[in-house]
Amino acid sequence: MHKKDFPLIFELSKSGRTSYSLPEMDVEETDLDEMLDPLYIRQEAPALPELSELDIIRHYTNLSRRNYGVDSGFYPLGSCTMKYNPKMNEDVARLEGFSHIHPYQKAETAQGALEMMYDLQTSLQEITGMHTVSLQPAAGAQGEWTGLIMIRALHEANGEKQRTKVIVPDSAHGTNPASVTAAGLEVVTVKTNEEGLVDLYNLKSVVGSDTAALMLTNPNTLGLFETEIIEMARIVHQAGGRLYYDGANLNAIMGYTRPGDMGFDVVHLNLHKTFTGPHGGGGPGSGPVGVSEELTSFLPKPVLVKQADNFVFDYNRPDSIGRVKPYYGNFGINLRAYTYIRTMGAEGLKKVSEYAVLNANYMMRRLQEVFELPYKQHCKHEFVLSGRKQKRLGVRTLDMAKRLLDFGYHPPTIYFPLNVEEAMMIEPTETEAKETLDGFIETMLQIAEEVKDDPEYVQEAPHTTVVKRMDETTAARKPILKYE
Question: Which residues does the UniProt record annotate as the domain Glycine dehydrogenase C-terminal (predicted)?
C-alpha cells in the first residue's frame, strides 16, 4: 500500500486532537472497579487514534471509495446473481410502519407487516410450485440445512432412520455437501456426463434403501438445464428418497417452469439473489424454504397463517423441527423481495429470466472464440469457460482474474465448479446493458491477446490497484487483523 496516498488512521493520529463533544453526564457516576471482576478491567487506556472530525470523515469516505459493489461496477460472479438492488426497495424498507415495529409487540398491532409476510409466502409458493413456504431461515445455506433437517425428520417419522445418504452432483455448490454434513447426513456423489448433466446411469447405481434425498439445482452449477429432471425425480422417488432444490439459480427459470412441477419436494430460495436484496459483505440474507404438502407439518415454527381476517403465528406444530432463527426471519430483506415481486409482476419476473438467459448466451458465444468452452449447448443464466488454452502459454485463470482488476472490473468466479479445469464462471444477470457486456467482453479479449504477446505482464497483475498481488494462502491463514 502506498502510505502517501492512503495513510492508515493510526498514522494520521495526533495527540490531543478530538472529534467529539459529549453532553454533561446526567446520571450518577459509577466506579466499574467495584462492580466487575478485575480480570475484565483495562489496566491502561486503549490505543485509539486521536483525530479531528474532518480527518475521520475523509478517512472513511476514502475507504468507501475503495470498496467495490454492484452500485459501482459490473459484478459477473457466477452462481451468485449479483444484480442491481432497486432503490425503491430501500425506500419501502425504511417506511416507519415497517422499520419501527418490534418482534415482541402483539400480532394484532402489526397486521400490516404480517399481511406482507403472508402475501410474500403466497407469491413464493406460486413462483416455486410448492405447497407451503416459511420465511424463517436467515440465508440460503441455512435454508439448505433446514430443508435437509425436514427431509430427515420425515424419514424418521416414517420409521426409515436408515435413510441417511444425500446424493449430490460433482458440480454442485459447495454449500450443498456442507449442509448435508451439518444435518448429520452423508454425501454420495453422482457424476456429471459429457454434456455437463447428471449421469442417469450413475444416479441409478447410487440410489437405494438408504437414500434420503437427491440435492441439486436446475439449471445446474454449469448453467445448464437438467433436461432429464422428470426421470431423475422418478428414479429417486421410486427408491423412497426425496428431491431437494437449491434455489440459487432460480433467476434463470422464473415464469417458465417451477421446481414443484419438476418433482421437487423441498426448495430453498435466495431472496438476496433472485429477488434483489442486498448481497454480500456479511449482511443479512434470506433463505425461505418451500415444501410439498407431505412435509408441511415439519416446517419451522411458528408458521404464519391466516385465520378469518387476521394473520397469526401458529405455535401448535408437534411435528415441527423447531425454530431455526430468532423471531420470524430477516424482515427487512423479505420486505425488499416483496417490493420487487409486486413491482415486477408475473410478466416482469418472466422477462427477468429471458434477459438473464439472453445476456449469458450473448457473452458466452462472443468469448468462446478465444477461451475454451467445455459444454457447447446453450446455457441459461450463467456459463463456465476454461482457461486451459491460456494455461498452456504459462498464464493461469488466477492471473487473468487479477489483470481484470486493472480495468476496474470485479473478476468472475474462478476455479469453480471443480470439474472444469481453470474454470471461469460468469453470470451477467438481466440488469446489465449490452454496452456493459460488450465492455467486459472486449477487456477479456484484450487480456487473451496479452497472454499471447506478453504473458509475464499478465502473470504480474494487478498493476494499478492500491494493493498489489498478495500471498493469498498466508493472507487467509495468518491474517493481520490489528495495527502494530
Answer: 353-453
Cell numbers placing 324: 431455526
Amino acid present at 357: V
Identify whether 74 is part of a domain.
no
| Cell numbers placing 87 | 432503490
Note whether 54 and 136 are same-domain residues. Answer: no
Nearest to 258 by CA among 169, 133, 126: 126
Please name which of 379, 378, 397, 380 lies closest in space to residue 389, comparing C-alpha atoms: 397
Q: Give one DSSP letter per residue of 126-169, joined into a string.
A: HHHT-SEEE---SSHHHHHHHHHHHHHHHHHHTT-TT--EEEEE
Between CA 215 and CA 223, with CA 219 as vertex, the angle to 5 degrees is 120
Nearest to 227 by CA among 430, 375, 58: 375
Whether 152 and 212 have beta carbons less than 8 Å apart is answered as yes
Identify whether residues 251 and 386 lie together within a single domain: no
Q: Does pLDDT of 2 surpass 70?
A: no
Instruction: Indicate if 154 and 256 belong to the same structural domain.
Output: yes
Instruction: For residue 469, tell me if it sits in a domain.
Output: yes
Helix axes 331-367, 111-128, angle to 10 degrees: 30
Tell me the pLDDT tens digit for each residue of 299-334: 999 999 999 999 999 999 999 999 999 888 999 999
Tell whether 340 and 357 lie within a shared domain. no
CATH number at residue 282: 3.40.640.10
Question: Which pairing describes strands 383-386 and 423-426: parallel, antiparallel, or unpaired?
Answer: antiparallel
| Residue 71 included in any domain | no
* Angle of the 331-367 helix axis to the 434-453 helix axis, nearest 10: 50
159: left (phi over 0), alpha (psi -120 to 50) or beta: left
- 202 with 191: CB under 8 angstroms? yes
The count of domains in the chain is: 3
In a domain, 70, yes or no: no
* Residue bearing cell 408437534: 318
Indicate the residue among 305, 323, 344 that finishes a domain.
344
User: What pLDDT digit, counting tens, does each position of 448-464 carry?
Assistant: 999 999 999 999 999 99
Query: Which residues, other chains included, contact 142 with Cβ-Cβ below 8 Å and sequence gap of 6+?
Result: 287, 324, 325
Cα 127 to Cα 247: distance, rounded to the nearest angstrom: 11
Owning domain of residue 371: 352-477
H or E stretch at 393? none
- Averaged pLDDT for residues 332-349: 97
Q: Quote the CA–CA distance of 162 and 244 in Å, as a whole number.
A: 18
Task: Taking residues 107-130, report their average pLDDT.
Answer: 97
- Residue-wise pLDDT tens digits, 167-185: 999 989 889 999 999 999 9
